Amino acid sequence: MPTIQILAIESSCDDTGASVFVNGQMRSNIVAGQDVHKEWGGVVPELASRAHHQHIVPVVDKALKVAKVDKKDINAVAFTRGPGLLGPLLVGNSFAKGFALANDIPLIEVNHMQAHVMAHFIEDPKPPFPFLCLTASGGHTQIILVEDYLNTKLIGQTRDDAAGEAFDKSAKVLGLGYPGGPLIDEWAQKGKPTFTFPEPKMPGYDFSFSGLKTAILYFIRDNTAKTPDFIEKNLADLCASIQERIVSILLNKIKKASKELNISDIAIAGGVSANSRFRAMLNEYGEKYNWSTYTPKNEFCTDNAAMIGITAHYKYLRKEFADLSITPSARLKI
Ligand code: KG4
Ligand code: ZN
Predict the structure, then answer these.
(1) 255 and 307 both lie in a single domain
(2) Are 313 and 4 in contact (CB under 8 A)?
(3) Which residues keep their CB under 5 angstroms from ion ligand 2?
(4) SS3 295
(5) Are both 113 and 48 inside the same structural domain?
(6) CATH number for the domain including 83?
(7) 71: in domain
(8) What would the pLDDT profile of 94-144 be if each residue is shown by its tens digit?
């Protein structure tokens, strides 16, 4: 079999990533984050686009060097087509097109949400088909029935905010920085879930997090009115309680889907799957309900180009190449 060497680019939000895959094996995975958003409490799209411009060439260079692959030997270049922020997506898209044209190689478009699921095929253990994957990120919360590498069915999703957004917005109310998920995770480890927040009643496998966000906001507002240093005194317990509720909402839907569809291979993906309590509770549920559970390494949960590379590898095998006229799609569906 001829060698398949793929360069993959990720630029959907605020991480510039490049990765090299050789015959489906990851050889490098470089990510440059963007601190510029911290002082704004969220991602500023125009600042993100500019930072991607600055990072993309050095990040690609490093990915090729670490992989010890010359750019002339790359057989295809892949990029994230969407969903994501249009400006950042355009940077990756334009770079990939230029690289494809200059080296006369095919271009491969990758759906970012499909890639989060495919992160499970970067390293062992890999889930067997069919399996259920709960993907929870900053912009999406989805339950996906995965029937084959590139054959997926969306069976449930959030009707409003994403799980990551629930973490980020709660962190903002608590006066923590951005992104809030990892900070809540860290604080929660020092506390106990002593406060109870409501679980939304959503039909089927759909989610809703906006009611929870409002409940948290009002709870903090009312208690701070009575006790001005309420947050300061209870920060660790508040974080543990918020985290417990978000994680239990996610797991209860997986439990329902697993039972009704009779599938016991359960995977989690996306930035929120880096959450330590989510990972621990998934294992607890796994033991209780006899599931085999799959959690990618943290570096493959949050945005990265390795997940784009592995998806592109399977697309290359199917010869699913994109035309050079392709444009990014901010709301691309899975
Ligand atoms: O998948 P991702 O890196 O980017 C998107 O595609 O959105 O996900 C980012 C989201 C953010 O909302 C961030 O707060 C959340 O993932 N996140 C976490 C943790 N690490 C990242 N949420 C909870 N606990 C974590 N440890
Ligand atoms: Zn993502």
Answers:
(1) no
(2) yes
(3) 137, 303
(4) coil
(5) yes
(6) 3.30.420.40
(7) yes
(8) 999 999 999 999 999 999 999 999 999 999 999 999 999 999 999 999 999
Q: What lines the ligand 1 site, CB under 6 Å? A: 13, 137-139, 164, 167-168, 179-182, 185, 270-272, 274-275, 302-303
Encoded tokens for 133: 């994957």
Say yes or no: 287 and 307 in one domain: no
Nearest CA to ligand 1 atom 16: 271
Q: Give the residue, out of 113, 247, 250, 302, with the most ligand 1 atoms within 8 A of its beta carbon, to mutate for a pocket test.
A: 302
* Closest protein CA for atom 1 of ligand 1: 271
- Are 131 and 279 in the same domain? yes
Q: What is the pLDDT of residue 37?
A: 84
The verdict on 138 and 261 lying in the same domain is yes
* Residue that has been written with the tokens 């989060």 in this structure: 116
Q: Which ligand ends up closest to the CA of 274?
A: 1
CA–CA distance, 318 with 308 (Å, rounded to integer): 15
What pLDDT score does 1 carry? 67
Q: How far apart are CA 310 and CA 14, in angstroms?
A: 21
In a domain, 198, yes or no: yes
The rounded Å distance from CA 221 to ligand 2 centre is: 31
**Stretch 210-227: mean pLDDT, rounded?**
96
Calculate mean pLDDT across residues 156-166.
97
- Domain limits at 60? 5-117+302-317
Residue 79 structure tokens: 């990029």
Q: At 234, is the secondary structure helix, strand, or coil?
A: helix
Asked if 135 and 269 touch (Cβ cutoff 8 Å), the reply is yes
Is position 189 within any domain? yes
The predicted structure's pLDDT at residue 245? 98
Q: pLDDT tens, 19-49?
A: 999 999 999 999 999 888 888 888 889 999 9
- Which is the closest atom of ligand 1 to the Cα of 302? 3
Tell how far the Cα of 116 is from the centroid of ligand 2, in angstroms.
Answer: 7
pLDDT confidence of residue 39: 82
- Residue at token pair 């089927």: 204
Total structural domains within the chain? 2
The alpha carbon of residue 304 and the mean position of all alpha carbons in its chain are separated, in whole angstroms, by 9
pLDDT of the residue at 43:
87
Indicate which atom in ligand 1 lies nearest the CA of residue 178. Answer: 14
The reported pTM is 0.96
Residues 98 and 36 in one domain: yes
Q: Does 323 map to a domain?
A: no
